[in-house]
């Protein structure tokens, strides 16, 4: 292949090959990323006999180079001569699967899984499966952890004797001496169970699962919770009670909060996996306990799942379960001592109103919403406000508006600018829900006050907010309520406020349309071209460039052009630059 | 150069014995890896020196056990914190080896502020053959390239490389005094005077604070954390010791924040011994779990104590390290020696304890026979493969011929850092800038006949 292209094409390839070992990591990385080009130039034969042996031994390199190499090799099948020769890729990937860096190992395993599908059943047994065994019985735990991820891809396609061996290897790794390997095995348990025949799931996997779930290290036990979900999905309903539930119950009451946290975090998945009957009898009390857990991290994780859990309860008994079992716990969480717990609850609690319907919401949930709206932690209040739409659908926002307003005002004036920023972002949503009348009366003044905030990020967000409001309420509303106030700031003694006027005009001109822009905004902008501060003047140039497309050509020629020409002769270099840019963009030259 | 001269003036007495030593050469930590094949030392100059044990060879059987330099590297450099106007010393406070995970070795080293993860690996091949250069490195004319060459790996002399893999920084306001790797192999903790942080070995930009004893008002500060260690096989348990002489055991299963301990070990103070120095000398300078995980050993200024994890009220055993100093506390306070932080170690079977003292003496206590011995690490009185003689300090009365009187002890020669091979009777003792490695000839009796081998630290 190389010869046919002539010598000209060899030089760049020669450079790439030499740079595989350049001292500069970046150059080596570039070369590795173009490995397919090198392989193509060398041809399949030389790639197999020269390039791959070289790569197999280059595991001394930097992580990012090794990572790129592991990824490249996953797509190399055609470059070594197709599926017939795909096993040539195994040695370099095997050595990459034993390095200490987890990301590299994981990528090597991913590539190995990918190319395993390109092996013929015979090659799989002759080449791939021995590699898995070598890794599984390696001296170092890095190789054994990598093996855990490879069992499930070869198992379905090998003979029954080899299958038995694979099961034995997996069993060994589940009881490995090092917790690293047991963790890797535990995290692949669910995946491996999926490819196993049901009889072996019952005979092998369950005992491994039980053993891992009672491992002495909690870092192993918590991974068994995840496996629990996959295993429960595989088993017939009648076996769940005897095979899975004892372990799950034990996990939900584990001594270690990290394991209970995991149960809380996976609760919705568990609930779906075990079905409605077990949910009713076992998971409801378990969930109550998690909501009352002594560790705040666990309560927060459980609080996050309240809505999802309630949604997925069987319909016939949903309301009773929520009202008698879940809601009392939720009520307690509203006044939890930990703010993360309260804020997790606040982000989902509004969702309960759709499930419980109007009457229950008014009677039971509304007092909770109101309490959270008055919470001392701004994050809790923000989370309630950001989810108002759920309640609006059920009971209408009027019920809340009396309490809502003080909460919004307080957040709008919070000392932390990030809190102010967050509430600004919910303004268009609130405006939509509360309606124009309420907005004009109560919230408009807040939106205007943000325009003169002393933090730039707030002024910027406030500008953006105005555009969204105009999109919602229309140009006429803009002309009457906000444009006069915005334009009024053009005479402010503070040049930063004068610039805000320009920024607002930039944002509003399109939404307001030609008439308002020409009639009301343009004169103000043109007048500001005489401002004594250069920053304002060059922003005038930028604004004119921005609103130019909205104006008609006559106006551009007669009004805008002279001003830009004047600015183009300004003594300040930046003003000149932006004026000239505007002239050329608007094609006024 | 100027700096060297200054140091010499200040440390005049010290330099009489170690004529080429500088402050930077003083060994600040010693640690064996889990197999005992490697031994690492850190020094005040921020260097780490790793020694490897010689493999047994037929023609020189006595050389088995000798440790030779395997790798030397600069782990930490002096830094300056511009925000706080503080100099950050490069001194290595602690070294901890990670369990071996592949052919390379990994260790954590820390100075006052920053923990680093180092990889020590061997390389014995190098690639040969370029396309654009010939064998002598001359650039070839691009037009003469008619075929592509793939580099080939050829054997070369063994090269040991140390590469920094991770830097864990910006998590400690105060000085780090301990690091400890968890038995789950994926986390470790770093401890400073007031806080303990938990790290994942693969994540450098985030750590979790698990203990915080900083009072809201610093004027109310009454105690600091002096050392902390994870349990050898229960991944959820760790202990930390305090300057008030107590040890707290925490269970990470119970809560995410371990400010509340689950066990509290403290010996009630004997009111008859109460003095101005009581609190200073009861401060714990080191705490170590036994290999079995059943016992704790603590070192305070005058004693070593062994605690049973199941008995919080008082120590199981108390050993006097140098009780003869009790009458000299006043002068030890004046020369600051009373604040020296002595470390302590267990032997492989938890039956013998070792800790350091002054005058290059170190002490061993056999827990079964209750015998104890004082040995000396020094160049003058020992040759390689000589047998160490026990030393005695004379306490009042007449001094016998082979005894040394308390008044002639040299307090500038202190043995703060020692290490014991995890399974054999080999010990490493750091005496200022010298590392002594002693090996028990008869293996069965720990307190007899240590054969001396000196590994004098050369300036790299």
TrEMBL record, chain A:
GO terms for molecular function: protein phosphatase regulator activity. Keywords: Repeat. Gene3D superfamilies: Leucine-rich Repeat Variant. One of its GO terms (cellular component) is protein phosphatase type 2A complex. InterPro entries: 2AA_helical, ARM-like, ARM-type_fold, HEAT, HEAT_type_2, PP2A/SF3B1-like_HEAT, PP2A_Regulatory_Subunit_A. Residues 89-270 form the Phosphatase 2A Regulatory Subunit A helical domain. HEAT repeats lie at residues 12-50, 166-204, 205-243, 244-282, 283-320, 326-364, 365-403, 404-442, 482-520, 521-559, 560-589. Residues 276-357 form the Phosphatase PP2A regulatory subunit A/Splicing factor 3B subunit 1-like HEAT repeat domain. Belongs to the phosphatase 2A regulatory subunit A family. PANTHER family: PROTEIN PHOSPHATASE 2 (FORMERLY 2A), REGULATORY SUBUNIT A, BETA ISOFORM-RELATED, SERINE/THREONINE-PROTEIN PHOSPHATASE PP2A 65 KDA REGULATORY SUBUNIT. This is TOG domain-containing protein. It comes from Pygocentrus nattereri.
TrEMBL record, chain B:
Gene3D superfamilies: YVTN repeat-like/Quinoprotein amine dehydrogenase. The keyword Magnesium does not apply. InterPro entries: PP2A_PR55, PP2A_PR55_CS, WD40/YVTN_repeat-like_dom_sf, WD40_repeat_dom_sf, WD40_rpt. GO terms for cellular component: protein phosphatase type 2A complex. Keywords: Repeat, WD repeat. One of its GO terms (molecular function) is protein phosphatase regulator activity. The keyword Repeat applies. Belongs to the phosphatase 2A regulatory subunit B family. PP2A consists of a common heterodimeric core enzyme, composed of a 36 kDa catalytic subunit (subunit C) and a 65 kDa constant regulatory subunit (PR65 or subunit A), that associates with a variety of regulatory subunits. This is Serine/threonine-protein phosphatase 2A 55 kDa regulatory subunit B.
């Amino acid at each position: 292949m190389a010869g046919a292209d002539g010598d000209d094409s060899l030089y760049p390839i020669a450079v790439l090959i030499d740079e595989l070992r350049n001292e500069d990591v970046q150059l080596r990385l570039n070369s590795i990323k173009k490995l397919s080009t090198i392989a193509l130039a060398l041809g399949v034969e030389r790639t197999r006999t020269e390039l791959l042996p070289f790569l197999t031994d280059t595991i001394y390199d930097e992580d990012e180079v090794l990572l790129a190499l592991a990824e490249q090799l996953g797509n190399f099948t055609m470059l070594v001569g197709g599926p017939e020769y795909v096993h040539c890729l195994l040695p370099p990937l095997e050595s990459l699967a034993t390095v200490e860096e987890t990301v590299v190992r994981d990528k090597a395993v991913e590539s190995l899984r990918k190319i395993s599908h390109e092996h013929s059943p015979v090659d799989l047994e002759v080449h791939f499966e021995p590699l898995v065994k070598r890794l599984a019985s390696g001296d170092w735990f890095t190789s054994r952890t990598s093996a855990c991820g490879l069992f499930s891809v070869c198992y379905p396609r090998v003979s029954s004797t080899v299958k038995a061996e694979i099961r034995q290897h997996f069993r060994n790794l589940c009881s490995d001496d090092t917790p690293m390997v047991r963790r890797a095995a535990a995290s692949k348990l669910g995946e491996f169970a999926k490819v196993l025949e049901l009889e072996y799931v019952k005979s092998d996997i369950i005992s491994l699962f039980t053993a891992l779930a009672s491992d002495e290290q909690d870092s192993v036990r918590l991974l068994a919770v995840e496996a629990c979900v996959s295993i429960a999905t595989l088993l017939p309903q009648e076996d769940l009670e005897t095979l899975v539930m004892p372990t799950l119950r034990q996990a939900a009451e584990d001594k270690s909060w990290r394991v209970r946290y995991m149960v809380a975090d996976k609760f919705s998945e568990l609930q779906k996996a075990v079905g409605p009957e077990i949910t009713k009898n076992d998971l409801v009390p378990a969930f109550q306990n998690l909501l009352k857990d002594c560790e705040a991290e666990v309560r927060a994780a459980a609080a996050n799942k309240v809505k999802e859990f309630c949604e997925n309860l069987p319909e016939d008994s949903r309301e009773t379960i929520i009202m008698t079992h879940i809601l009392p716990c939720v009520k307690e969480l509203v006044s939890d001592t930990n703010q993360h717990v309260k804020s997790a609850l606040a982000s989902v609690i509004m969702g309960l109103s759709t499930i419980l319907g109007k009457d229950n919401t008014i009677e039971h949930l509304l007092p909770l919403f109101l309490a959270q709206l008055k919470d001392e932690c701004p994050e809790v209040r923000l989370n309630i406000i950001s989810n108002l739409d759920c309640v609006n659908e059920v009971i209408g926002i009027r019920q809340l508006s009396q309490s809502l307003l003080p909460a919004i005002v307080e957040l709008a004036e919070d000392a932390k600018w990030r809190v102010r920023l967050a509430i600004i972002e919910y303004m268009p949503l609130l405006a939509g829900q509360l309606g124009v009348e309420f907005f004009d009366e109560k919230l408009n003044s807040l939106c205007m006050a943000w325009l003169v905030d002393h933090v730039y990020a707030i002024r910027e967000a406030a500008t953006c907010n105005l555009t969204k409001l105009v999109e919602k309420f229309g140009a006429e509303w803009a002309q009457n309520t906000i444009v006069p106030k915005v334009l009024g700031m053009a005479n402010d003694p503070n040049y930063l406020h004068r610039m805000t006027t320009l920024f607002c005009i930039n944002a509003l001109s399109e939404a307001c349309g030609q008439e308002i822009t020409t009639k009301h905004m343009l004169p103000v902008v043109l007048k500001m071209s005489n401002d004594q501060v250069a920053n304002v003047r060059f922003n005038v140039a930028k604004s004119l460039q921005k609103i130019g497309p909205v104006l008609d050509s006559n106006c551009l020629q007669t009004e805008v052009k002279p001003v830009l020409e004047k600015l183009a002769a300004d003594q300040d270099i930046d003003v000149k630059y932006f004026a000239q840019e505007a002239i050329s963009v608007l094609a006024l030259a | 150069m100027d700096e060297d001269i200054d140091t010499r003036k200040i440390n005049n007495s010290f330099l009489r014995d170690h004529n080429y030593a500088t402050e930077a050469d003083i060994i600040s930590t010693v640690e064996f890896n889990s197999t005992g094949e490697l031994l690492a030392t850190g020094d005040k100059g921020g260097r780490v020196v790793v020694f490897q044990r010689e493999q047994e060879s037929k023609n020189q059987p006595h050389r088995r056990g000798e440790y030779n330099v395997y790798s030397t590297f600069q782990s930490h450099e002096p830094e300056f914190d511009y925000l706080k106007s503080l100099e950050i010393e490069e001194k290595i406070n602690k070294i901890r080896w990670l369990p071996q995970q592949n052919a390379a070795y990994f260790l954590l080293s820390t100075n006052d502020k920053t923990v680093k993860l180092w990889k020590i690996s061997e390389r014995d091949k190098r690639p040969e053959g370029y396309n654009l250069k010939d064998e002598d490195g001359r650039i070839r004319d691009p037009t003469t390239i008619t075929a592509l060459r793939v580099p080939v790996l050829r054997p070369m002399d063994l090269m040991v490389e140390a590469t920094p893999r991770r830097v864990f920084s910006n998590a400690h306001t105060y000085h780090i005094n301990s690091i400890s790797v968890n038995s789950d192999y994926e986390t470790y903790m770093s401890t400073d005077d007031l806080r303990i942080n938990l790290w994942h070995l693969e994540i450098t930009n985030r750590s979790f604070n698990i203990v915080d004893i900083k009072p809201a008002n610093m004027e109310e500060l009454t105690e600091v954390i002096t050392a902390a260690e994870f349990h050898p096989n229960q991944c959820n348990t760790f202990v930390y010791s305090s300057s008030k002489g107590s040890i707290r055991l925490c269970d990470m299963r119970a809560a995410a924040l371990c400010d509340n301990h689950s066990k509290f070990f403290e010996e009630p103070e004997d009111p008859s011994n109460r003095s101005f120095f009581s609190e200073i000398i009861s401060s714990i300078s080191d705490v170590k779990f036994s290999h079995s995980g059943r016992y704790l050993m603590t070192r305070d200024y005058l004693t070593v104590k062994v605690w049973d994890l199941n008995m919080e009220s008082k120590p199981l055993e108390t050993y006097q390290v140098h009780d003869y100093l009790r009458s000299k506390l006043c002068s030890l306070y004046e020369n600051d020696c009373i604040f020296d932080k002595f470390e302590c170690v267990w032997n492989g079977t938890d039956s013998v304890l070792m800790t350091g003292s002054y005058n290059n003496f170190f002490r061993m206590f056999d827990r079964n026979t209750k015998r104890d011995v004082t040995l000396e690490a020094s160049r003058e009185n020992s040759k390689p493969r000589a047998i160490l003689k026990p030393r005695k300090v004379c306490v009042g009365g007449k001094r016998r011929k082979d005894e040394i009187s308390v008044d002639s002890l040299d307090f500038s020669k202190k043995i703060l850092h020692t290490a014991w091979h995890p399974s054999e009777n080999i010990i490493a003792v750091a005496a200022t800038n010298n590392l002594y490695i002693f090996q028990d000839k008869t293996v069965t009796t720990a307190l007899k006949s240590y054969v001396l081998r000196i590994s004098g630290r050369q300036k790299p």
